[in-house]
Here is the input.
Amino acid sequence: METVRERIEKILDGKRPERLPAYTPTIASDVASRILGRKAYTGGPELWYEEAIAWTNGKSAWEEFNSQVVEDIIAIHRVLGWDVIRLPWRNNIKPSKRIDECTFVCGDPDGMHQVWKWDPQSMNFFMIHDSSNGTSPEDWPELASSVERGIDDRIEVIRSSFGDELVALQKRVGDDMYVIGGGAALSLGVDESSLIAAVLYPEAVEKILDCQLQVGLAQLEALAKHGIKVVLGGGDMADKNGPIYSPEMFYRFMAPRWEKIADKCRELDLHYVWRSDGNIWKISDFLFKEAKFPGYGEVDFDASMTTAALKERYPELVIWANVSGDKLRRCSSEEVYKHCMEILYSSDGKGHVYGCSNTILPGTPVENVYSMMQALDDFSRQNKKRTKVTIADEDIKYKDR
Here is the structure.
């Protein structure tokens, strides 16, 4: 019987496991709650809202909440049979004041502050007011100086404690699951101010990116020291139509720094998963042929980044989940099953970690989540009926017994 670690190692080595490992980055708390039959804190805007409530109830309440998040993440992975586990993204909203059931102030209510609001209907938690009026492009030179002044302290913190939570999580789950970590992400930014600053103040932008790079390299070293093999990195930069900024900007600001991240990962023997939603075909050859990142995550099926197309162009690339969160939420269970089987057969049973590409969205029907996992069960059973034959040129074919 194949262990979870053996399953992952085969995928990373380009081999076929008995069963593709299952992984989904995030499952919304309301969906997990319906599956577990109790209140659960697992991810999405509802998790951020519940964490804000916990902070307003005091540090001990937050500590209890924090522990429950870990237990709930483990519980939902066990129920759904997911092999790969990571800690959810926390928006780190720590309110200074609660105005009402859904509204919170962060910062000084009489000075610089933000106001965050939970909308039960859309199940979203978002900022509705920022007294600073945001950042303008003219702020970038001072922002760069500020970031540079704080870089040594930040790196010191990384070296002392980064990755400790992941080590604790791996001990907690033992051999039942495989823990992966996040780190070494880089972002030029996709908002208007960031993009204008890149044109008007390129030197300041480069200083900020160089600080991001220093942080990222330190994070990679810390994760490697802790024995974490798979690192989730990348940085959102695209929508369904393509990259939000031009290839010229990408090659000036991002490409040289991505090459340094890739080189460091090879030096440390880390499997780096480059992540971004959207259509990235215009820069994908750089990422997966030139920089040679071995993994690709948040693979957006609905933006033409399909397993079939990617496997044809990059046969050695490990695809970290490709099931559409949109289809999971709005389609029938039969349509979800068909969509998932299409992806599984496109993978040919290797170089693929199976699951929803990003978040199982709030409001997703539970039966659709089960259909997603049923597809993996059925594909795995069908795969076992095949016999592997290795031919002289080391191609691998399958034939029915």
In short: The domain at 4-38+136-400 is CATH 3.20.20.210 (TIM Barrel). The longest helix spans residues 202-225. The radius of gyration is 22 Å. Confidence is low (pLDDT under 50) at residues 387-401.
